[in-house]
Amino acid sequence: MLVPMTIVFIFCIFCALGHNVYSNSEQNRALPNSRSVFVCKRPAVPWLRDLPPRPRIINPARVCDGKVDCPLGDDETCTTCGDPPHVPSSFRTDSQTFFPTGAVVTYSCHSGFVLGEVESVICDRSGSWSKAPSCKKQCDPIPQLVNGLMDTYIETLVTGAVVTFSCVPGFAPLRNNFLRCDSSGSWFGTPVCQPVCPVSNLPTVANAQRQAVTDPLTVGMVVTYTCNSGYSPAAGTNSIFTCDRNGQWTGNAACLPFCLVSNLPTVVNAQRQTLTDPLTAGSSAIYSCKDGFAPAPGTSTTFTCDANGQWTGTAACLPICPVSNLPPVVHAQHPTVTDPLTVGTVITYICEDGYIPTPGINMSFTCDSFGQWSGIATCLPVCSVASVPVVTNAKHSVVIAPLAVGTLVTYICDTGYSPATESKMSYTCDEMRQWNGSASCLPRCTNPVNTSDGRSWRLCDGDGPGFSNPKKGRIEVQVDGVWGTVCDDGVTNWRNRNLDIACKTFGYSGSNGLNRRAAFFGQGVGPIHMDDVSCTGTEAFLTQCPYTRISNCNHCADQGVECL
């Protein structure tokens, strides 16, 4: 047994001295605990250092795990990588702490972030990690573009992504139509699709040319028109059309003919401002009247160039009538007026209270073509209606204000009354606003006398027709509210007894004995209440005397009496 053991020992020494490197199989798989290349090293024996080392194959089951796995108790020496690279916004999915060749480390991104094309790193043979993955910020939802569509749909977009848009028909991009996702995940950019205004929809402007433009024309774009020779832009127009936000052309443009200064009319007694051609539609030419003249009422002293290249307007300068030359009118005033007052101006005067215009006078003055005031105005005093005299037992004619000088008011006596002999029965308004005249109405009959039998008695027309006398007159009696007469047709032949009783009826002692028969005091009216009166002389009043009510008498036989 000694010999074999000696042989083995010598062999091992030889191996140990002559072969100082040995390794396992070269497997390099990117899996946890994969078998990796490693070597076992020992210091070379000095006297064998010139011998080339030879690797010795170790059991492939051996792994490079930092443990003592080499023969003769040697420690292994592995090719390893340091800590895996740091990937922002991510975390590792393993808990490894030892990273030999072939080790794999996998990453996942935090919420809101997305991995790029690589999700893990591998430790290579040189002890270096492969290119690290990256976690990019996930972009916010893509904002909707009004009247636009996204060109390409991508489900998940991360920082740096660019999205382009196209506008729907009838709309065009205002500027670069894209969005870029920045590092915060927000979209940067302002794509806008705005309406298109077709060139074909541009209006035609008479007597004008349009600048050359081509589609598309979008909101805010302006197209300018230029008037042809001999024409100019109408007043209030700007000769442009603008594409509005509704895709419509808005604006105003019109070209109108020129008006020539030489065609301006001449205005008598006026001078015109200095003007030079050309004058466009809407231009004005202003005239000013010379001294002593003023614009005629209803004129503007301005001519305007119209749309047909013609001057339109009215201007006239008329002589001035100074306000200070208006004639004064006694008891009248004119309204407040100020200069200038031109030909044809009419100033109407108004009479003061208590005065009226003279009949047939128009109370006005007119400024004539010579600058003079012509006309007439006079005022007459008036008498007030309230001042018309009141006449007892009479009525005056209808009066209506104003009552001018010379107005005549007439009177009519009431029934039972007559005008006095000296009465004019009228009053006239004089220049002093006083009433001149006379009117007096006297009763035709005396005041009634009542007797105990309920009768009333009166004497009428004793001093002549319409004038009463208290002691004489036609005898009248009231029966049942109706006045009538007493008749004597000669049957009884009134004598002293009848006459005396008649006078006693009126309160007198007797008569003068004169028989005033046959309507001596005039004929009465109404019924004949008493006929054939025959008194005895003892009665107190006539109706106590015998008489008849049914009469064959008439008013030509009305009885009268004269009392003492």
TrEMBL record:
Residue intervals of the SRCR domain: 457-564
Residues spanning the signal sequence: 1-18
Keyword line: Disulfide bond, Glycoprotein, Repeat, Signal, Sushi
CDD domains: CCP
UniProt entry tagged with the keyword Signal: yes
The Sushi domain, residue ranges: 79-137, 195-261, 319-385
Gene Ontology cellular-component terms listed: membrane
Disulfide bond residue pairs: 535-545
SMART domains: CCP, SR
Pfam family for this entry, one: SRCR
InterPro entries: Compl-Cell_Adhes-Reg, LDL_receptor-like_sf, SRCR, SRCR-like_dom_sf, Sushi/SCR/CCP_sf, Sushi_SCR_CCP_dom
PANTHER family per UniProt: COMPLEMENT COMPONENT-RELATED SUSHI DOMAIN-CONTAINING, LOCOMOTION-RELATED PROTEIN HIKARU GENKI
Protein name per the record: Sushi, von Willebrand factor type A, EGF and pentraxin domain-containing protein 1-like
Source lineage: Eukaryota, Metazoa, Spiralia, Lophotrochozoa, Mollusca
